[in-house]
Q: What sequence folds into this?
């Protein structure tokens, strides 16, 4: 049967889904034993570690963290609808080691173009959170670009940090590190 993202899963459902995923990986993922990762070990551990009563979406995010290790750029769980968790009202991009904020083709603020923090969480921490949950392993350039882009899914990052505030306080900075 089809599950809704906010539906709670039982421990038995979690175990059955993980067993099915392991079976599919062993039969169909040709690179499973060629890469340096512990995906099968982590999936086995999840069967006992994941609490009963998590939502389908939380379960999908947990599994996504495992498949990100494959680094093939193709392994992912579709339908998690991370945008519904909340988006920034502007776009973010990687530029010379920093995160630039822009909207409709222009910088968000001409003199303070870089993201410093959101709700007092430093940009470096936010980048780490989105990388862990959303970004597949890959080249340093790919990871840096996709990390910055993925900050747009701020609701996901805040959820991972257990921050439930709906209002965002965004602090920008200039080239010298001074904040606005």
A:
């Amino acid at each position: 049967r089809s599950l809704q993202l906010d539906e709670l899963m039982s421990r038995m459902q979690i175990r059955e889904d993980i067993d099915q995923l392991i079976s599919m990986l062993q039969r169909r993922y040709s690179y499973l034993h060629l890469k340096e990762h512990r995906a099968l070990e982590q999936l086995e551990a999840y069967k006992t570690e994941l609490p009963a009563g998590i939502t389908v979406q939380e379960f999908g995010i947990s599994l996504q963290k495992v498949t990100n290790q494959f680094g093939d750029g193709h392994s992912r769980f579709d339908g998690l609808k991370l945008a519904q968790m909340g988006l920034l009202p502007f776009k973010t991009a990687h530029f010379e080691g920093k995160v630039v904020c822009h909207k409709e083709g222009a910088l968000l603020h001409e003199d303070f173009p870089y993201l410093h923090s959101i709700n007092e969480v430093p940009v470096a921490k936010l980048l780490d959170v989105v990388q862990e949950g959303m970004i597949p392993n890959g080249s340093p350039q790919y990871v840096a670009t996709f990390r910055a882009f993925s900050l747009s899914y701020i609701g996901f990052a805040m959820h991972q940090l257990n921050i439930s505030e709906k209002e965002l306080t965004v602090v920008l900075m200039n080239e010298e590190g001074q904040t606005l």
Summary: The chain has a mean pLDDT of 82. DSSP finds six helices and eight strands in the chain. The longest helix spans residues 11-28. The two ends are 51 Å apart (CA to CA).
